[in-house]
Task: structure prediction
Amino acid sequence: MMNDQEHKRNNDKKISGGTQLLSGKQIQSVQRAIDILNCFNITNTELTLGQISTRLGLNKGTVHGILNTLHMNGYISQNSSGRYLLGAELFNKASLASDTKRSILIDRSHNYMQNLSDYFQGNCTLFRIDDLYLQLVHSTEPRNSTFVVRRANSDMPLYCSASGKLVLAHLRERPLNVYLKDAPFPAYTGTTRTTIDALQNEFEKIRAEGFSYENGELFEGVAALSVPIYSSKDNHLFATLSLTGMSVTIARRKKEIFPKLAEVARRLQQTIDF
Result:
């Protein structure tokens, strides 16, 4: 039989010689392939061999060999002018990662959201933020109510929806001004805020209070309250969580709704490492 020291040595060998633990060692060719892919961004969608070589400080022969390998596997493509761009396989993997994140969000948020819907008799909706686009991730409705509130969706205008105003309030000055240049916006109801001054005042209130609220701005008789969910990695606005219901109910229970929504948002932020 092995003594304790021999057993420990054998375990150490298994760990160090296997694939169980990640060390600081890098494979140079893999790192260079990643560096090449990272050369592409929103302002550099097409690059020549020379441009990539110069940026990375590598000779063209080395870069060309890696590009060929990436091209053969679909991660890099080449247009008719010989310039390189990201390939379809990379976008397929990105789409898969997005679907995985969505499944995780639904799995970890559903019970919280359903409880909020049942307790406050309203629809609870989770939107993921993609630039100025609200991506509907999940929505729940009260299970014991005959009143059906119009479902929130990704086509809602930002300036008169609770989640949309929350997104706008988090924008930096320049992109916010770009968005507001189209004001005054169309009014959906008599209470829709449409002017720059009215909306800027609303955004200041949202920043101060930590939540967004709209009452009859999009649909008469319907109100909503929305809170932010921040990324656990860099604290940017990652998603919004909102509760929508009859105006009389949401307005009367607003002070009760906000802390409960905020608590769920805090728990989701702690458990989702995005």
Remarks:
- The first strand starts at residue 76 and ends at 78.
